[in-house]
Amino acid sequence: MQWAHRERPQDVVPTHWKRLSENRFLVDGSWPEEHPFFAPVGGLHDPLLLVESMRQSTILLGHAAYDVPLDTHYLMRSLDFTCQPQHLHVGYKPDVEIEVVFDELTHRGRVLSGMRAAVTVGRNGREVGTGVSHINLISARAYRRVRGAVAQQPVPRQYAPDVPPQLVGRLRSEDVLLFPTGIWGHWVLKIDTGHRTLYQGPKDHVPGMVLIEAARQAAHATIGPSAFAPWTGDNTFHRYAEFSRPLLIEVTDVSLSGADWAMKVTGHQDGEAVFTSVFSAGQSRRLS
């Protein structure tokens, strides 16, 4: 669990790993049929479970195969993914095979400090999805030097009307990550550091997976009522998403071409770009 940066067994995807060549690995994993957050919709697994599998496998291999210290901070610069919804059906065997190939490895002294990970996920002999991420690794000492003062700041309380979970494609109110602003397509990120899946372990900023999920929820609210399941996503993280200031989320560039939706979701703090997500999903494959 610790190597995947998860605290609860039910949230851990990887089960075993082996090295295939110098920088190529195979990770065995298991997808739950039921999960309180990555819940199936319309008989299909959540595409973000695929993304989380890629993320956990990359982190695991950094520690296990490259001797990255456990207190090192993994910071995503980008995470792009594509999935094949026809292979996401719940009810297949839970086993997944995750192939990870690393390149663009950089070092600070003898310690790994950055990498690119290309990931392919398979189920039952079929490719389920692919992804590419760019990651910076920062030692605990360097991180304290850069972020030490921020880590001591309390998370401010937020006061805003609740959003009905169905509006953003969720089943439970505790999974809603948005507050309304009164302007169509504009939201404020809701921060709940007590969320048992999204915030595991001490955090001094909003994790990248939270930003991707918030962007997905904003996309759903724009084109609902059917659940928005992004089959492709290009996500770029420009700077830390701080707890101390409102993070404004905006949906732009919404288009429908034939049966395909595409949209861009951005996040800003104090007028500065924090993240950008570009999603697409086929209308005929949206979940109901």
TrEMBL record:
<dbReference type="Pfam" id="PF03756">
    <property type="entry name" value="AfsA"/>
</dbReference>
<dbReference type="InterPro" id="IPR005509">
    <property type="entry name" value="AfsA_hotdog_dom"/>
</dbReference>
<feature type="domain" description="A-factor biosynthesis hotdog">
    <location>
        <begin position="5"/>
        <end position="132"/>
    </location>
</feature>
<protein>
    <submittedName>
        <fullName>ScbA/BarX family gamma-butyrolactone biosynthesis protein</fullName>
    </submittedName>
</protein>
<dbReference type="InterPro" id="IPR047757">
    <property type="entry name" value="AfsA-like"/>
</dbReference>
<feature type="domain" description="A-factor biosynthesis hotdog">
    <location>
        <begin position="167"/>
        <end position="252"/>
    </location>
</feature>
